[in-house]
Design goal:
By secondary structure, this protein is α+β, with helices and mostly antiparallel strands. It has a domain of about 90 residues: S16 Ribosomal Protein, Chain: A. About 65% of the residues lie in helices and about 20% in strands. It contains 4 helices and 5 strands. It has a 5-stranded mixed sheet. Strand 1 and strand 2 form a beta hairpin. Helix 1 crosses helix 3 and helix 3 runs antiparallel to helix 4. It is elongated, with a radius of gyration of 38 Å. It starts with a strand and ends with a helix.
């Protein structure tokens, strides 16, 4: 029986969610599997991976093959690197302490890279929000200026009407006063 580590698709249409499974290669993609070793959600940014590290390593050590996507996920999670380092320990190239040191350095670098990516996303989102706010403020200033112009024009028209009405009343008042003199 050839065992493969592969992805089993779940979720709904246009919203995939995958289980990372160890399965017989002759079974269907979403069919019966031997063991579920993790999950993969590509819809989040960055993609979310939950993995049983020791079980994935076990299946690789006993000879399970991986599909291309599963290999990529296992590589990013460090499972393939750990398998490589354990091969070096078996050959006598270095000891367990060195293995732990190298693997910890790998995980620290991975974490630093992930933190840099998330901080970049957050800063881009913050700058986009700030830019949008500045644009809205500018639009509001323009709108207030137009409203002020319109109000000034209305006030001028009212003042003009008031002046005309006062001018019409003044000669009429003089006309009524003249005969009385």
């Amino acid at each position: 029986m050839a065992v493969k580590i592969r992805l089993s698709r779940h979720g709904r249409k246009a919203s995939p969610f995958y289980h990372i499974v160890a399965a017989d290669s002759r079974r269907s993609r979403d069919g019966k599997f031997i063991e579920k070793i993790g999950t993969y959600n590509p819809t989040t940014n960055p993609a979310t991976v939950e993995l049983k590290f020791d079980r994935a390593l076990y299946w690789l050590e006993v000879g399970a093959e991986t599909t291309d996507t599963a290999r990529s996920i296992l590589q990013k999670e460090g499972v393939l690197y750990m398998k490589h380092l354990k091969g070096g320990v078996k050959k006598g190239a270095f000891d367990e302490a060195t293995l732990e040191k190298k693997f910890q350095a790998f995980m620290d670098a991975k974490q630093k890279k992930a933190d840099a990516f998330t901080s970049k996303l957050n800063s881009e989102a913050a700058s986009a929000a700030k830019k949008k706010l500045e644009e809205e403020i500018e639009i509001n200033k323009q709108r207030e200026a137009k409203i002020a112009e319109k109000n000034a024009a209305l006030a001028a028209a009212e003042a003009e009407k008031a002046a005309e009405a006062a001018a019409e009343e003044a000669p009429a008042a003089e006309a009524t006063e003249t005969p009385a003199e």
